[in-house]
Amino acid sequence: MDLSLLQDIPRFKEWHQLQELTGGNSRERKFRLVDGNGQSCILRISQVERFHLKHQEYANLVRLEPYGLCIPKPLQFGLCNGGSHLYMLLSWIEGTTVASLLPASSEEEQFQLGIQCGQTLRGLHDLSMVRSSIPWLERYQEIEEDILKKYHHSPIRLRNETSGLDYLQTHKHLLENRPLVIKHGDFHAANLICTPSKQIGIIDFDRCMISDPYEEFAILVWTAQKHPAFARGQIAGYFHHEIPHDFFPLLTYYITVYAFEHVSWALGYGKHGIDTIQKTAEDLIDLFENYTHFQPAWYR
Fold first, then answer.
1. Which residues does the UniProt record annotate as the domain Aminoglycoside phosphotransferase (predicted)?
2. Quick check: helix, strand or coil at residue 90?
3. What is the mean pLDDT of each run of 10 residues along the chain (300 residues)?
4. Which of 61, 141, 179, 209 matches a 20 to 30 Å C-alpha distance to 128?
5. Quick one: fold of 96-286?
6. What pTM, to 2 d.p., does this model score?
């Protein structure tokens, strides 16, 4: 294992049990280690071109640290390898991913896990409320327009494209006067850790951004395909079993945008054929049965 890019990080020589981790985000290298104080840590190494994004991620963790959430503790941040890379040293969250627990869990156990994860997400959102001079409607329309532009320039046309676009066009009012939080951006079962004390920890904050808190739920569709009870539990836990009337219409909006986004993302990712990409995106829109239902099929 070549460790040359780490050697100018302060206190590098105090580290031991250094182990490179594989899988996950290919844009960075990750190492598990034990520091000079005997604390288990994760070290993340990125290209210096991502400095602004990674610094913002680190700043978000610093902001959240005083609240006692079960999230990685920020320890060090800076440049390394002669300034060509940056590093972020965080505390390690010990435990088992929720994703690995779900397959062997009963439907009721999945639901209860979902409730606990939903409560954890609500705690994160409640502690990260932000104010912005740019209304969410204006902010999100830029995101949406970029997604749809990429979709229209792609070689794929969805069978249910018209109904999806019509829903977006006629329901933009839902985006008005929305609260804003720092959303995690990748809140799914593989990024949730069930600790030995049965807390739910959250890892991988590298997609944080200012957002409507409801948008966080759009990626729940992937877990819901295999574990719908967990997905239902996450929603119930987040809202303490009292779901607001505007939640599902907004979730429908965000999942619809997500369907179009999936097309350009999957084409760029390059691991799936066009037919598979098209069917996956169409299935997301079909969850709402031509928009006769706001609740996705896995929730009803």
1. 19-239
2. strand
3. 85 93 80 95 96 94 93 97 96 97 98 98 95 93 97 95 97 97 95 97 93 96 95 98 97 97 86 86 93 89
4. 141
5. Aminoglycoside 3'-phosphotransferase; Chain: A, domain 2 (3.90.1200)
6. 0.92
